[in-house]
Amino acid sequence: MTPAYQAIGVLVLGAVVLLLLVGRVSGQPRAAGLIGLPFAIVAAGLGLQAPQPLSLAVVALSGVGGIALLLVPVLQAEVPAHVAEAAALLLLGTAGAIGLAASTDLLQAVVGLETLALSAVTLVALGAGERTLEAAFKYLVLGAISLAGLLFGLGLVILGTGSLGFPTATQVAGSPLVLAGVVLVGMGFAFELALFPLHWGALDAYTAAAPSLAGFVMSASKLAAALIWVGCLTILWGTFGALGQAADLRRMLAYSAVTHAGFIGLALGSGPNGPTTAAFYAAVYGSMAMLVFAALAGQREPQLRSLGPLRAVALALGLFSLGGIPPTPGFWAKLAVLVVAWQAAGPLPTLIAIAGGVFSVLYYLRPLPDLFAAVRGDGAPARPVLVPGVLVAALAVVGLGLFPGIAWTLARGG
């Protein structure tokens, strides 16, 4: 059994253990998170033994799941007793994302993708309020439609090639049946990864999910992430959408997730170095998204002036990094994508990506006055500091900013 599938087994075992203990830990969210955390750590350790760039994907996904588990104590659930199930779903969703990243044929990819998607939609539904339930229902229905198309496309590919393997370019060009199947499968994956123009199902889910879970839902789907022009269009659409929603922080972050999906799509389409760069970008994005939502955890509607100095600084660091301001890890990740895009696709797609990155700074910096007020203590009384989750996510972002070569080496394989 490969290290990636060993990691999946450990995560599934952790989810089963949590479900078996649900009667005892349902009222103890901190205990639920701490029970699940060792399984995420062991999975990350197993991921180090996997080949590259899969190793980086397994480690990053396990890290995202671990940070999300540390935020379980502040999950605002409609039914507080369901917190233990949320911890189990985090482990199961992480296992599905690793399965998608490690897939060697279409069937494995579909199983991994849907495990991640169903875990994510259930996590969104666990949040308090009708808005989360509505968002989860819409995402579920649209996801079911996309799954139907994906499975139909999978059937066409099998019919045309006689295999579950990923079709080659020759097979796609030589058979209209295989081409139609690939298009349907691609549309299904584009919906789940929030690529333009099939991103709308994810926006409400990203916006309405509890902050302690939204970071996982957004980053896990990107870490599991064709493609140059799809990526460019996604960058443009997400950037202008975020500019239009800049006054609503959660909605802006939802559109910005679409933009980052575009950067990953652009990297994937940029020649032989593209997958390595996409893995590097996705790992960095996962750390940045988790830091932002760790700082916002516990707030249904962000009240930035009441965050307190430490959480305000953490949120500012996350937003600076998402905006790609040097020397944060977001800058190094975007630079890596731009380099491979220039080499493989030429100036036009690269300039589009540069424009998207420059305009994104405008909406990422908009919350800074409120964050400065929070640092000065001008707002409402500060909320409790979530030391473990915020600290781990902040250390990951600072480490990747100072030593980006570590993640790049893991992605490149030495």
| Main sheet record | none
Topology order in helix (H) and strand (E) letters: HHHHHHHHHHHHHHHHHHHH
- For the termini, the CA-CA separation is 23 Å
Binned strand content: under 5%
Could you estimate the helical fraction of the residues in percent? over 70%
Q: Name the poorly predicted regions.
A: none
Helix and strand content put the structural class at: mainly alpha
The mean pLDDT is: 77
What is the CA-based Rg, rounded? 20 Å
General form: globular
Report the total helices.
20
What is the number of E strands? 0
Outline the secondary-structure elements:
Elements: H1 3-20, H2 22-25, H3 29-47, H4 54-70, H5 83-101, H6 106-125, H7 130-161, H8 169-174, H9 176-192, H10 200-208, H11 211-224, H12 228-244, H13 249-268, H14 274-296, H15 309-322, H16 329-345, H17 347-364, H18 368-376, H19 387-402, H20 404-412
How would you describe this protein?
The structure is a single chain. The mean pLDDT is 77. It is globular and about 65 Å long. The protein is mainly alpha-helical and 414 residues long. Helix content is 77%, strand content 0%. It has 20 helices and no strands.
Keywords:
77% helix; mainly alpha; 414 residues; 20 helices; globular
Brief description of this entry?
The chain has helices spanning 3-20, 22-25, 29-47, 54-70, 83-101, 106-125, 130-161, 169-174, 176-192, 200-208, 211-224, 228-244, 249-268, 274-296, 309-322, 329-345, 347-364, 368-376, 387-402, 404-412. It has 414 residues and is mainly α.
